Amino acid sequence: MPELPEVENIAQGLRHEILKCGVTRMQVIQPAIIRFPRNWRKITKRFVGDNIEQVARRAKRLIIAFTGGGAILIQLGMTGKVLVADADAPVVKHTHVRIRLSNGREVRLIDPRRFGRVWFFAHLDSVHPDAEMEAAGMGRLGPEPFDVTPKKFREILQSSRAVKTHLLDQSRIAGLGNIYADESLFAAGIHPATPAAAIPPAQADKLCRTIKSILRRAIRHGGTTLLDYRNAYGEMGRFLKMLKVYQRTGRPCHVCHTPIQRLVLGGRSSHYCPKCQPLFQKI
DNA sequence: ATTTCATCCTGGAGGC
DNA sequence: TGCCTCCAGGATGAAA
Question: Strand C neighbours with CB under 7 A?
Answer without folding.
Answer: A 1, 3, 59-61, 75, 77-79, 113, 115, 136-137, 140, 168, 170, 177-179, 267-269
